[in-house]
Write a sequence for this structure.
DNA sequence: CGGTCTCTTGACGGAGTTCAAAGCTAGTGG
DNA sequence: CCACTAGCTTTGAACTCCGTCAAGAGACCG
């Protein structure tokens, strides 16, 4: 693993808490580097999530399969995002979601045990994870609000603006399943959006 | 304020972290007791949220008013729940949601300053708030999933089962705005649910 | 080039909205 | 104790958004 990549995690953490060099060293070495090919199932619904991972390169998605068998994408994660079912991970209970890579992906991974001992050794990391959770909660809450108030077209246009990288790298039917609409309807929205832009 | 009430908060915190008696004392005294009548606006959209509050008695709701003027209830909070726009509170940025009491309500309140110094004095509380955020994130995520996969009827029946107290205490149009449907449609769903039950 | 994966298009149907009106219910004042 | 009002809920008709199904058109890969 190139040192330059770990630097991304260092930067990320520094954005939340100030650590001494020693502490930072302890933190960074706690993570395990992993490389996985695209289409790898990192977590299957029903299993207990065994990782909390920082993405160095590549792309993953978290999704939920409902009773009728339809898939709903909970979130996409690109470089410098985290991917995990944190609730399953921390409480060691079965997850209701699945996680898979969409591209070849490089990760820095924490197991429940290493996270627990890391928090013992560097208590400041409690703060970092707390702030991270707060930020994440905010993202999910805003999404919930938008799903309730905006039309599918609004949501699509916002997504386009906010996550152009995801649009470029991810198949459209996954985008649809994130926006909460069928892939056919997304296709029709795109047509309308283009027309409106002319 | 009756000592028995503070006990509720003590129990809540003990559910997350083990504190010494001294630490617990520090924590509990950091909170300020407040009593507010029903229909009190605790936070208005656009303002910075100045409180993180534990509800001792009463009921509040957090809601979002969209561009068209429609209200969407983000969550209800009864006894032993927290109410705040945590992101606005922690980052001291304007909130996009509003918070109001629906009943006469008694609260234990933290200001940003007291929370900050509390975290300095009792670092274990970082952990408590982290775990609390994780739990909350889980709740919101599950709700997002259900909104995407379930019909309005499913969501109503689940709400009925899970939050019977809220049903009893809160007007129906607020329930509708929580479920993401119009109050008229909720009324029709109720009719259908009763019929199906006969 | 043949197959698989992805995206588009159209017809139809159903879930949920909006608008308008009326029916309840619980306080409140006389 | 009744009458009134304000707040809440129900109903119905017309309409819209979006889903499902089915077919076809590209596009990418071995």
């Amino acid at each position: 693993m190139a040192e330059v990549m770990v630097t991304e995690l260092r930067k990320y953490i520094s954005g939340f808490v100030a650590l001494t060099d020693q502490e930072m060293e302890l933190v960074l070495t706690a993570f395990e580097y992993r490389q996985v090919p695209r289409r790898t199932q990192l977590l299957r619904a029903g299993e207990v999530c065994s990782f909390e991972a920082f993405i160095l390169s590549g792309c993953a998605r978290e999704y939920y399969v409902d009773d009728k068998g339809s898939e709903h994408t909970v979130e996409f994660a690109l470089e410098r995002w985290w991917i995990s079912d944190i609730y399953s991970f921390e409480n060691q209970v079965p997850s209701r979601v699945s996680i898979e890579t969409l591209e070849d992906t490089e990760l820095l991974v924490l197991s429940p045990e290493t996270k627990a001992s890391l928090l013992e050794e560097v208590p400041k990391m409690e703060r970092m994870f707390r702030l991270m959770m707060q930020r994440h909660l905010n993202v999910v809450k805003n999404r919930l609000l938008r799903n309730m108030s905006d039309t599918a077209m609004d949501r699509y246009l916002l997504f386009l603006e906010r996550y152009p990288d995801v649009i470029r790298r991810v198949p459209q039917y996954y985008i649809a399943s994130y926006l909460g609409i069928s892939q056919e309807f997304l296709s029709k929205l795109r047509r309308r959006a283009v027309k409106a832009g002319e």
